[in-house]
Amino acid sequence: MSFPFHIANTDGAARTCVLVTPRGDIRTPAFMPVGTAGTVKALTVDQVAETGADILLGNTYHLMLRPTAERVKRLGGLHRFMRWDKPILTDSGGFQVMSLDAISKVTEEAVTFKSHLDGSRHVLSPERSMQIQADLLGSDIVMQLDQCVSWPAEESAARAAMELSIRWGARSKAAFGTRDAQALFGIQQGSTYEHLRRESSERLQETGFDGYALGGLAVGEGHAAMCEVLDYAPAMLPPDRPRYLMGVGKPIDLVEAVARGVDMFDCVLPTRSGRHGQAWTWAGALNLKNARFAEDDAPLDATIPCPASRDYSKAYLHHLVRADEILGQVLLSWHNLAFFQALMSAMRAAIAEGRFEAFRKDFHAGLAR
Amino acid sequence: MSFPFHIANTDGAARTCVLVTPRGDIRTPAFMPVGTAGTVKALTVDQVAETGADILLGNTYHLMLRPTAERVKRLGGLHRFMRWDKPILTDSGGFQVMSLDAISKVTEEAVTFKSHLDGSRHVLSPERSMQIQADLLGSDIVMQLDQCVSWPAEESAARAAMELSIRWGARSKAAFGTRDAQALFGIQQGSTYEHLRRESSERLQETGFDGYALGGLAVGEGHAAMCEVLDYAPAMLPPDRPRYLMGVGKPIDLVEAVARGVDMFDCVLPTRSGRHGQAWTWAGALNLKNARFAEDDAPLDATIPCPASRDYSKAYLHHLVRADEILGQVLLSWHNLAFFQALMSAMRAAIAEGRFEAFRKDFHAGLAR
Lengths: 369, 369
Fold this sequence. Notes:
CATH class of the largest domain in chain A: Alpha Beta
Oligomer: homodimer
Largest sheet of chain A: 8 strands, parallel, barrel
CATH topology of the largest domain in chain A: TIM Barrel
Radius of gyration of chain A: 20 Å
Distance between the termini of chain A: 48 Å
Shape of chain A: globular
Number of strands of chain A: 16
């Protein structure tokens, strides 16, 4: 039984919806902070929850290697282990095996790879990925195992990966079975080839999933090429189920993808930028290390109800970044997550009020200022 | 006018008191977390406040070099800069100039040193230290400039440093002048020589300070030798003013110093240990990296009302430390500060109830278990 998905409002292709899960509602458009190794880097789960996140993403690849999925299971599952009681989506592990590990071997059966931690050999099949995500980690939203090609890709390579992903999707679904409290998402592939994306979507729907992701984007093609794919790819997916654009992205990517009908996102950008002294704002990204902030007594954004955004001066953040203090990484990661949630909240409100195009125009004008 | 200092209870040499400052009461025995460069490392001030700390320590040496005391002043003073509205004690900068910087030159007039950041030359005199602490940073409790010798010290060197400290103390007081809302503490020196400690105390009291520190300890002499000095040195200082043991220490040092009449402490230990995977408990220090914690589902201390102590399993902390996650440093620093405050609170209660000796015995038994 799929989680209920209520479409509250549409405005052009953009829409605001609620995905109802046993662990809580996910308001879309939704941004999922990434908790790679059982932690959203540098932040407590309470700080993450305060930003308004309805759901986190966990990485199967990292968790299966350390502390291992079996250990997480023995410790009560991923929610209890990391103290997050709202929904968690886990990726399949496939993308990271292929992007982080050069010596992986892909066969029809499975991906074989060596751990970046100790060189030990591991096998990830659709069945094993389902076991790790659904049974051991206890994820609320499970992703099928897929194969993603890098960009640019020859059509033949893109087709082969898309077709393998379809077969792995069917095996993922068979292994996942029928569950009341967990959902399984399929992943559309096809690189930047419209006819491959169409074929992928049609065959995924023959298998039938609780939600559908757009895979194989944000892999180097750039904003414009990604938008070209998003001009057609989301509409190929069933409108009555959530559409999730994996690994995206910058605020401008989020706004343009929402305009094209995407509902869910995840990205390490806010926390990674925060660890490197960058703050995301309505005016774009600021480098707090810059001397122009040395005596700037204003906060990053007084309108965001997050202590990191509202209460600390840019001068103080500048000092922390210059002095390489951990608190600088903490506060900027926290602010960035709060800003991303404020952006999603503003988009949801604009769609609900039928003024998304005006919002989008204002957003671009803010960046250009 | 000195801050009021109310002695609530005594139990042997131990005592529990309240130092009343315009920014809030300091309950003694008090442990002051160290906010070296305008931040208690890895923690927000709200997290620090939650542990029950009544006062923080700031380091003049670090702040005068970066962001500079003048910049802190332009940004509204240290309290506003770092968002801590309770009392702050600042050290004089002298100890760190001498311990961190090999090429400093000490004359009757001042210490000259080179910045560890950019090699620039700086001069720290008693008058300049008062200006930085009292006028620019806006500290609540200001420390006189002193000279501290390393251990072991020849008697002639210990005497020379003690006598210079007395003269610098008098100049510090003259420069500090009379202030309603700020206090100035003198510093007893004399290494491990009882007659020098006595002479230092007598001459300090001729100058007259709002409180008195025990300097020149925790510089390598070890717990037993420190306790020998504490057998006589605190009693040389006026009982009606707070006694502050600088740079101390481990929990066992705090208990033994309180037993000998010390009221205030500061140390980087809890936060430094926390950044290195160590947790302080009633059973001593635990190394969370140790494999025996890998599946230990219990929290560090369920009785301490701090999320880091109470809510996260040792297995999770073990995972974070092994994975070198910032959150591990955050949570262990936070727990350690909460444990140190729980220890001070337990000592205050034991003294108030006239059972400090029993507490002390239990504390030692807990370490031996």
